[in-house]
Amino acid sequence: MMTQHPNAVLRGGGSLVPDGERIRHVSNTTDTFKLFLGNRYEHYAPTEDMYLHDDGQELQVFEWVRRTFVAE
C-alpha cells in the first residue's frame, strides 16, 4: 500500500477539531472536504492559501465552513 503524504492543513472549526486531524492528505483538493468526528462532519472548503509545514512541505489550506450532525 502506498503512503499518502499530507497535502492539506485544516484551518478553523474551533477546539472540537483535534490538532492531530488538521495536517492530512486530501484526495480532491478542489472540493469541500468532510472530516468525520464522532457524531458529526466538519466541512472545509479549499482556498488558494498555502501553509509551509515544519518539514518544508507546502500544504494547501482548507477553511472551516460548517458542522453537520449525523442523524440517528
Describe this structure in words.
The mean pLDDT is 95. The protein has one domain. With 72 residues, the chain is mostly beta strands. 12% of the residues are buried. 0% of the residues lie in helices and 50% in strands. It is globular and about 40 Å long. Strands 2-1-5-4-3 form a 5-stranded mixed sheet, with no helix packed on it. It contains no helices and 5 strands.
Strand and helix map with partners:
Blueprint: E1 8-11, E2 23-24, E3 33-37, E4 40-52, E5 58-69
Parallel strand pairs: 1-5
Antiparallel strand pairs: 1-2, 3-4, 4-5
Main β-sheet, in a few words?
5 strands, mixed
Mean pLDDT across all amino acids? 95
The fraction of residues in strands falls at: over 45%
What helical percentage do the residues reach? under 10%
Unreliably modeled segments = none
**Outline, from the CA principal axes?**
globular
Supply database-style keywords:
72 residues, mainly beta, 5-stranded mixed sheet, 50% strand
What is shown here, in short?
0% of the residues lie in helices and 50% in strands. By secondary structure, the chain is mainly β.
